[in-house]
Amino acid sequence: MAEFDIHRETVIKADPAQVQALIDDFHQWRKWSPWEDLDPSMERVYSGADRGIGARYFWSGNRKAGRGDMEITGATSDAIGIRLHFEKPWKATNQVRFELTPQGDTTAVTWRMTGQQSAIIGKLFPMDRVVGKDFEKGLAQLKAAAES
Q1: Which terminus of the chain is more exposed, N or C, with fewer CB under 10 A?
Q2: What is the pLDDT of residue 125?
Q3: How far apart are CA 83 and CA 87, in angstroms?
Q4: Three-state DSSP state, 43
């Protein structure tokens, strides 16, 4: 198994608390997640805490959206940790981390995903190529949501 570490960054003209509110509440992901528009009839189930540690989100959609769940495992003023579990289109469990760094009247946001994949699959489908553009789209949409 080969480890991967994918990350993208942006700077948002908003304070960290405002950005964090869009990330640690899965209900808010519909405003910015790059995957929310893959299936207009996607099933979503929220459970656990309303936000922060223990909040859970399950989705099941078409072939593009797939199926899986996420749980917030850590939440501080400068980072949010999420366990991401995919059932379809492939089985995998990865760790996601959003890092929030105040910079004057802006917040630098880093979206990171780490995990493992077989070396053969990694050569055919490098994770950076698979989700890198999605992270860029999601951060642009997060920026638009936070700055509006």
Answers
A1: C
A2: 66
A3: 13
A4: strand
Residue 124 binned pLDDT confidence (cut-offs 50, 70, 90): low
Tell me the sheet residues that pair with 109: 10, 100
Instruction: Answer yes or no: pTM beyond 0.85.
Output: yes
Give the number of other CB atoms < 10 A from CB of residue 104: 6
d(CA 23, CA 81): 10
30 Ramachandran zone, left/alpha/beta (phi>0; psi -120 to 50): alpha
Structure tokens, 57: 């989100």
CA distance 73 to 57: 12
**One-character DSSP codes across 78-143:** TEEEEEEEEEESS-EEEEEEEEEEEETTEEEEEEEEEEEE-HHHHHHS-HHHHHHHHHHHHHHHHH
To the nearest 10 degrees (0 to 180), the angle between helices 16-23 and 127-147 is 120
Amino acid at 81: G
Angle at alpha carbon of residue 39, lines to 53 and 56, rounded to 5°:
10
DSSP secondary structure code for residue 40 in this structure: T
